[in-house]
Amino acid sequence: MNTPGIERMRSCRCSALVLAPVLAGAALLWPAASVRAELPPWVYGQEQRGAPLRLELEVVTVQRWPALRPDQLLVLARVLSVVRQPHGSHLRPGDALQLRYPLPALQPGGWAGPAPLPLLTVRQRVPAWLKPDPALSGVYRPAAGGRSFGPSLEDIRG
pLDDT tens digit string along 113-155? Predict the structure, then answer.
């Protein structure tokens, strides 16, 4: 004899059996969702070593570049020192240079991926690894991804 209560219990047992693997999988993935990861330091070291320009800069202005793309920053900086530059480049301390790069993207919590480019600030003094912008003469771009500005990782090898 089937009663409504017994049928409901059978139905619940089937639902629980179906949901159990889903809940177990979610429980296993939950800690991973809060983990952040980026490229290993040696990758950034390799990018920094490959950058044609290594400079010490002081940031003079930072502004959006609405004429080309509103998601781009235009930075005017003063060269404090030249650590490395290709033959034929004539940057010297005291020279002004322009660089452009995309605004740092806001990432959701738990996002994993390469380090974003930092937002430079006025009067900030920072080491920089740059390359010429092929589209704009006299303008430079970050050459080492999210580690194009800040401490050197050139000595770290994989």
Answer: 778 888 999 999 999 999 999 998 899 999 999 999 999 999 9
- What tokens does 142 get? 């970050």
Q: Is residue 139 assigned to a domain?
A: yes
Distance CA 119, CA 37 (A): 20
Whether the Cβ atoms of residue 43 and residue 82 lie closer than 8 Å to each other:
no
Burial 95-109 (b: 16+ CB within 10 A, else e): eebbbbbeeeeeeee
Residue 57 shares a structural domain with residue 106: yes
Distances (CA, A) of 110 to 37, 41, 98, 117: 9, 19, 33, 18
Q: Please indicate, yes or no, whether residues 58 and 20 belong to a single structural domain of this protein.
A: no
Tell me whether residue 91 is in a domain. Answer: yes
